[in-house]
Amino acid sequence: MKRLLKNRVKEETDDIKRRMLTGLPFERPLYALYEQLRTSGKHAWTVQTYRLLLLYANAGQKKALFHPALLQAFMALGQLRQARAVARQLLSKNPADPETRKLLRGLSARAENALPPYTPLAALSPYAAQEKGLSRSLRPPLAAKWKKAPEIFSDENLQKLGYFEKRKQLARAPRSCRAALEETFDELTASYLLGSYRAAAALAGAMLETLLALHIKKTLKIQKISVSGRAAQNIFDLNLHDLAACCAAYNLLTPHTLKLIGAARGQRNFIHPGKALLEQAGPTPAGVRVCLLAVLETADEVL
Which pTM does this prediction carry? Predict the structure, then answer.
């Protein structure tokens, strides 16, 4: 079922792209596709469709790409900055649109609730409607590093990690995934500085998967690849182990970087409770630093 939907979305997206390039009306099929994806809960696909079509849209067509379903997709994915930008465009186009107004109320509530608004699961949780007030006497002490956040996130500490230079480098990534890479890198940097090592290891793994998939696609100019004799898969469906194996097989990265990626993958595995409990171990400061270095050096090679 998923494959059939994916093929249909690709066909419809290609048709919309053709209409855009030839100057034909494309809004009706685009909005129908948005609604289809929203109904299916494929919010990531909605965003991917938007970002793909954005590459082919002229100045006049870009405004027509906005739709309440796109706003809801950005909200569901937690990309609030993009959600606010879409909301501004929708309100300028149709200030009285009730769907946009409803989503905007949810966007405001997002800052106050731990769960995403307008999802059936959120309605089932008592935490979604929980009162936020808590008497001072009942508040547990904050983690020491949280209290020192302004000091921890100083320009000096960020400069030592190469944050500013890497942020400029990520701006060269393909537009379709640039925002996701930048957001993931920001979260990785914040987690590392705060000592949230499991979060940092997981985010480093996610970023490495994206960087390697983009590198394979760009260098080999393919969308699918076979790994270990298995049937060909979409590059973006492969895990970090398989992506690194592809890069090693085709000599797409230096042995040094591949070694760093292998070490980072080992650290990321400790986010699984079974492995952590069985081995009585977890991500260490030194190990997570390797994860960060793997991201920095991989980005140097592929961007």
Answer: 0.57
Query: Minimal CA–CA distance to 254: which of 213, 205, 294?
Result: 294
Q: How do residues 176-209 score in pLDDT, each as one tens digit?
A: 788 889 999 999 999 999 988 889 999 999 999 9
On whether both 198 and 292 belong to a single domain, the answer is yes
Q: How far apart are CA 134 and CA 119, in angstroms?
A: 26
Angstrom distances, CA of residue 6 to CA of 2, 108, 137, 161:
6, 32, 53, 39
228: left (phi over 0), alpha (psi -120 to 50) or beta: left
- One-letter identity of residue 254: T
The candidate with the shortest Cα–Cα distance to 65, out of 118, 104, 99, 29, is 29
Q: 260 and 168: one domain?
A: yes
Render pLDDT for 128-143 as a digit per residue (tens, 0 to 9): 555 555 555 556 677 7
Domain hosting residue 241, numbered range: 144-302
